[in-house]
Amino acid sequence: MPRFVPWTAYQRLPAAEMIERSRDYLQKMSGRRTVRQFSPEPVPREVIEACLATAGTAVSGANMQPWRFVAVQDPGVRQAIRERAEAEEQAFYSNRAPRAWLDALAPLGTDAEKSFLTTAPWVIAIFQARFGVLADGRKVKHYYAPESVGIATGLLISALHHAGLASLTHTPSPMGFLREILGRPRNERPFLLLVTGYPMAGATVPDIKRKAFEEFVTFM
Question: What is the CATH number of domain 40-199?
Answer without folding.
Answer: 3.40.109.10
